[in-house]
């Protein structure tokens, strides 16, 4: 198995049936082996606009998109390594510090992010 090191700000493309793949971003450490991860989805009229991303914010983003805080999840590093080895997940680089900060701040104000995850973010960003 590959030794996958994940850090806050790292991105990965993950298979998310039934809609193929989404870009996920690790935005906080929730324990020594788990990361809080959020995914990017296309903007729509009912989107949570706590964090809007545009072309140029990450090379994977091709149009106006949002962070889907409602589907945020904790993922263990070993789970990501297993997904990479099964070709269900592909690492896609790191977001810039400014984009990461926007995503984290958006999580703090999002009405859709679970409170337990907001606490993890508050601990990290102050």
How would you sum up this structure, described in words?
With 126 residues, the chain is of the alpha+beta class. It has one domain (10-125): Roll (SH3 type barrels). 26% of the residues lie in helices and 35% in strands. The protein contains three helices and six strands. Strands 4-5-3-2-1-6 form a six-stranded antiparallel β-sheet, with helices on both faces. Strand 1 (10-15) and strand 2 form a beta hairpin. The radius of gyration is 14 Å and the shape is globular. It starts with 9 loop residues before the first strand and ends with a helix. The model has no long low-confidence stretch (mean pLDDT 90).
List the helices and strands and how they pair.
Elements: E1 10-15, E2 21-29, E3 34-42, E4 52-53, E5 65-76, H1 77-85, E6 89-94, H2 97-109, H3 115-125
Antiparallel strand pairs: 1-2, 1-6, 2-3, 3-5, 4-5
Question: Which features does this protein show?
Answer:
SH3 type barrels, 6-stranded antiparallel β-sheet, 126 residues, alpha+beta
What is the succession of H and E elements? Answer: EEEEEHEHH
What is the count of distinct domains? 1
- Helix-strand makeup class: alpha+beta
Report how far apart the termini are.
36 Å
In which order are the strands of the major sheet placed? 4-5-3-2-1-6
| Tally of alpha and pi helices | 3
Write a brief caption for the model.
This protein is 26% helix and 35% strand. The protein has helices spanning 77-85, 97-109, 115-125, and strands spanning 10-15, 21-29, 34-42, 52-53, 65-76, 89-94.
């Amino acid at each position: 198995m590959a030794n996958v090191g994940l850090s806050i700000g790292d991105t990965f493309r993950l298979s998310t049936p039934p809609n193929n793949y989404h870009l996920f971003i690790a935005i906080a450490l929730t324990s020594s082996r788990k990361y809080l991860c959020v995914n990017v989805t296309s903007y729509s009229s009912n989107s949570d606009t706590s964090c809007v991303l545009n072309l140029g914010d990450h090379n994977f983003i091709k149009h106006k998109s949002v962070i889907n805080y409602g589907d945020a999840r904790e993922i263990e590093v070993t789970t990501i390594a297993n997904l990479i080895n099964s070709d269900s997940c592909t690492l896609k680089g790191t977001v810039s510090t400014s984009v990461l900060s926007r995503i984290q701040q958006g999580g703090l104000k999002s009405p859709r992010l679970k409170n337990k995850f907001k606490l993890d973010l508050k601990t990290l960003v102050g």
